[in-house]
Amino acid sequence: MPPKKPAAPLSFHENVIRQVRSIPRGEVRSYAQVALYAGRPGAARGVGRELKLLPGTATQVPWWRVIRSDGTLAPPVAHEQARRLRLEGVTVAERGQVFRVALKDREDS
């Protein structure tokens, strides 16, 4: 039997989706953190673009758990994002800012 071909490396899109899916319920990560964990430090805007391309009804990828580095939510979906985060127990201020305690660094084990 011939040896298996090695798996192709994951694309940036696939890495972003994998990282976003790994964010636990009730926690958030910044676009910059997701970019770093996806292997592209400095590609925070690229993460935003990848998440924007998801279908409008996508719930299997918890896009609402990704916020700006300053803790604010990104328009034009900020109201829906805040609603979903609150359902998960994340405290979101009326002005649309997530309290910093929810923005955690990933533990590397």
TrEMBL record:
Q: Does the keyword Acetylation apply?
A: no
Gene3D superfamilies named in the record: Winged helix-like DNA-binding domain superfamily/Winged helix DNA-binding domain
Q: What highest taxon heads this organism's lineage? A: Bacteria
Query: Is ATP-binding there in the keyword field?
Result: no
Coiled coil ranges (UniProt) are none
**GO biological process assignments:** DNA repair
GO MF entry, a single one: catalytic activity
Membrane-spanning intervals of the chain: none
CDD domains in the cross-refs: ATase
A Pfam cross-reference name? DNA_binding_1
Residue ranges occupied by any Methylated-DNA-[protein]-cysteine S-methyltransferase DNA binding domain in the UniProt entry: 12-90
PANTHER family recorded: 6-O-METHYLGUANINE DNA METHYLTRANSFERASE (PTHR42942), ALKYLTRANSFERASE-LIKE PROTEIN 1 (PTHR42942:SF1)
Q: What is this protein called?
A: MGMT family protein
Q: Which organism does this sequence originate in?
A: Corallococcus llansteffanensis
Task: Identify the taxonomic lineage of the organism of origin.
Answer: Bacteria, Pseudomonadati, Myxococcota, Myxococcia, Myxococcales
